[in-house]
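question for whoever is on the cluster today: can someone run the full assembly for these? two chains, 850 residues total. i dont have access anymore since they changed the login thing
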Amino acid sequence: MELITNPQPLQWPTLLKRPIFDNAEIQQRVMPILQEVAKRGDEAIRHYTQLFDKVTLNAFQVSEEEMAEAQRLVPETLQQAIAQAKRNIELFHTAQYDAEKQIETMPDVICWRKSVGIEKVGLYIPGGTAPLFSTVLMLGVPAQIAGCQEIILCTPADQYGKVNPAILFTAHLVGIQKIYKIGGAQAIAAMAYGTATIPKVHKIFGPGNQYVTAAKQLVSQTGTAIDMPAGPSEVLIIADHTANAKFVAADLLSQAEHGTDSQVILLTTHAPLANAVNAEIARQLETLPRKSIAEKALENSKIIVLPDTETAMAMSNVYAPEHLILAVEDPDALGEKVINAGSVFLGHYTPESAGDYASGTNHTLPTNGYAKAYSGVSLDSFVRKITFQHISKQGLKNIGLTISTMAEAEQLRAHAAAVYVRLEE
Amino acid sequence: MELITNPQPLQWPTLLKRPIFDNAEIQQRVMPILQEVAKRGDEAIRHYTQLFDKVTLNAFQVSEEEMAEAQRLVPETLQQAIAQAKRNIELFHTAQYDAEKQIETMPDVICWRKSVGIEKVGLYIPGGTAPLFSTVLMLGVPAQIAGCQEIILCTPADQYGKVNPAILFTAHLVGIQKIYKIGGAQAIAAMAYGTATIPKVHKIFGPGNQYVTAAKQLVSQTGTAIDMPAGPSEVLIIADHTANAKFVAADLLSQAEHGTDSQVILLTTHAPLANAVNAEIARQLETLPRKSIAEKALENSKIIVLPDTETAMAMSNVYAPEHLILAVEDPDALGEKVINAGSVFLGHYTPESAGDYASGTNHTLPTNGYAKAYSGVSLDSFVRKITFQHISKQGLKNIGLTISTMAEAEQLRAHAAAVYVRLEE
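^ ran it for u. tokens below:
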């Protein structure tokens, strides 16, 4: 990893610049797919599934037999691990439920919010080499807690028309009934517009390649909500003299193995750590099946030596990392100064992979600097908080003049009149 | 208003169809404005302000003298009304603050969320005939409670280079220091990209005309968050035999006066109410300064007679209105069945204008059916909920096998290794 020592704050933005992906061209390629699915429904889905996934499906929906088969294929140890992760995620996300608090803002003027689950949500789980069953937990568990009435899941089949059994096992565990073996931009279109087979949903969640991302972006402009804009995954670690080079190297690599476009940054106040981490990375890389991916990601990655952890935190807040690890002596104190980050991992024994899988926090997080304005997925992502108010006749007497004075000043007479007609009765 | 009796559920979607606005053409016109502001900054702003607002400004920022002058120009009664509304909005939005709840998902695995205000936010307040100082409260108050460090406000000046004093008074009251006299797409671009004078922000809030809306939509695709997608304002009223035709007519008109594209729907279980409301509308219309606007809006509006309030609520949930008024005998019971709505007004003495101005709830709400997936603006809109976790050495022993088993099954070895290196120590 490239080593930089004590850069001046003016240099920080350039140093921390992320690669810019222009997806206009991809959107151009995805647009006709969306239009075809909107027009021809299942027929278009079938066509694109043959074209891109090289598989002809008799039925899109996963059958009960396939579900039963998946339960048998997943090893007992993995079943237990998934069940444990589910319990932790459930615990953490259930605690996010807001009970209705009625606020009497003035006498007899009562206002409150009520969390109501989004009726229909669609979860997208990518196919490919790594079966992301953990994402089924991260999206399916809060969707269930929110009380979403219809939860569907789309994930592409392999060339034999099969979905990875761990994905099916996990979906079954969280109670998702409708699983469709379709992927890519065509799956996003199916969920956004609905087809004879695939129900239309109000919000679409989940990761995907650049085509899926572009499709989500496009449908989000025509009435379908999406979880958040997506970019390459990233980690920033702040490490001081108490940090263990082995741990730090392992955490950097666990991010780097995601993809060649992953972003990995180490800020350290302890110059000797820089070399020790680089040496450890070289050593640990040798043991990794995804070595070539990680190596490529590390080419764009940086170790920056800074005078103190305060400066490091200031720099981290400029970068706004998706994942932030504080491998320092007093992580709680430093954690208080976080302004921009998706998820924060405190101390030497809190690897990012804990949050990726099992500690209970969500792993769907804002990348690409979006942490400056967006939160990660949570129970909130699956509900609307609808406001309610109930004003009695006496309450309206108390608040009426305030309303009508403001309405008249905004030259909206009918707004004031809605108060007048009531107070005249 | 057009009267329809007992339509069959299959007809509902057609009956409730909103006009579709194709803003592709407007986006085409707005795009060069955004590009010019990105390239030439203040110079471009000055140019477009002369072109569109017909005013040449010496300085964009409102001066202290102008602020002081505004305080003198706002009548005492209006000052008091605004102050009262501010207290109510503050009370309601402060109650939305979530204290950190630490959850020990497994022994020594501790997870929590922390609300952190978005550092820099921009509020847009339209100019024109009606000075929307109420929106300054609705956006400025939660931004302050959230602890946003920089809150800027853009609003266009009139031909004399002045901003409406009620807007300046309200901005001062909520503690907004930086107010810029610029409007339109160029103001949105200035806040999204920053100029020498106007600070770049992370999220932009506020209503506007179709150019402002298109500009917000465009910048939201390149890294600046926005409050929510916008469409024409709308109300749906469910009224039974206990409803007062005068009140119902006044509420319909208070929505209709917003704009010629406003959507107004009355669902009633009591057929005689339909005629009584139409007669009242005709009578009340005569008293309204914005009569011609309201008349136009009413042309596209409907009264639908339905057999019972349950059916009416089912229809309302299909429509997903921005504002929903329940003018029925037992509004609390019926309110329990709301699935899709932005804000709900219960009972005969709760006009929509209460929530528009003063009861405490927010008036920035999802229109155009977006209530199916989006909430209105709240304190949540101005914070990120950052997740934190702290795992001790013992905690990692407890959870380690779960993490590594899942990581290995997802073929992400480095994720598992981040656990192994720690447990080996």
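summary bc i know u wont read the tokens: Chain B has a mean pLDDT of 96. Residues 238 and 326 of chain B are 5 Å apart (CA to CA).
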